Amino acid sequence: MDKPRLFVAIELDDSVRAAAARAAEALAGRLSRSRPDLDARWVDAANLHITLWFIGHVGVDHAQAIQQAVADPFHIAPFDLHVTGFGAFPPSGAPRVFWLGVQEGQDSMRAVYEEVSRRLQALGYEPERRPYSAHLTVARVKDPGRGGHAELRRVLGDTPGDAGVSRIAAVTVFRSHLSPKGATYEPLLRVPLQ
């Protein structure tokens, strides 16, 4: 039996995922005209989410321990999250990820992340060294192409990218299934915010 590949994330409303996918499609069109040698894999609307913590492959017993650690209700009130504004990681040099950012709801997202972090650190998981930055990944860049990366960042900054507001009321543990056609995400556990 293969080891489950897990991550903890926030799910978005269907309308926000659809709007984010449309904005990403518009961005892809602009980038293809500006930088035809760019090679990026765009995230399907069904797979759009905001990752809180990527765990990776774990044994079945450990997967159950992770779900138990996350299962207690979060004593954080449901909140609105405004997804808007394109950007890239890393913040300079060749981009590896294109994303939509978070405006309204950042403080609540950070509180949820810190609670997930506390629970997973109790199982021995180390947090990333860089500060948490809530974002919605819309593409992973395989090859940014030749030339200055400033042009890519200019197009990102000039492309409207407002996906709207999503009501966040739960934290979800997902299992990622990888295949040649891409990843699919199976929700294993949804824990309410309250």
Describe the structure.
The chain has helices at about 15-35, 60-70, 105-120, 150-160, and strands spanning about 5-10, 40, 50-55, 80-90, 95-100, 135-145, 160-170, 170-175, 185-190. It is globular. Helices cover about 30% and strands about 35% of the residues. The model has no long low-confidence stretch (mean pLDDT about 95). Helix 1 (about 15-35) packs across helix 4. Strand 4 and strand 5 form a beta hairpin. It has a single domain, classed as Cyclic phosphodiesterase (Cyclic Phosphodiesterase, Chain: A, Alpha-Beta Complex), CATH 3.90.1140.10.
Strand content: 35-45%
Helical content band: 25-40%
Mind telling me which CATH architecture this is?
Alpha-Beta Complex
| Uncertain parts | none
Strand count, sense and barrel status of the largest sheet are: 5 strands, antiparallel
Specify the CATH class. Alpha Beta
3D shape:
globular
Q: What multimeric state do the chains show?
A: single chain
Q: From the alpha-carbon coordinates, what is the Rg to the nearest angstrom? A: 17 Å
Give the overall pLDDT as a whole number: 94
CATH topology: Cyclic Phosphodiesterase, Chain: A
User: How far is the N terminus from the C terminus?
Assistant: 36 Å
CATH superfamily: Cyclic phosphodiesterase
Number of domains: 1
Class by alpha and beta content: alpha+beta
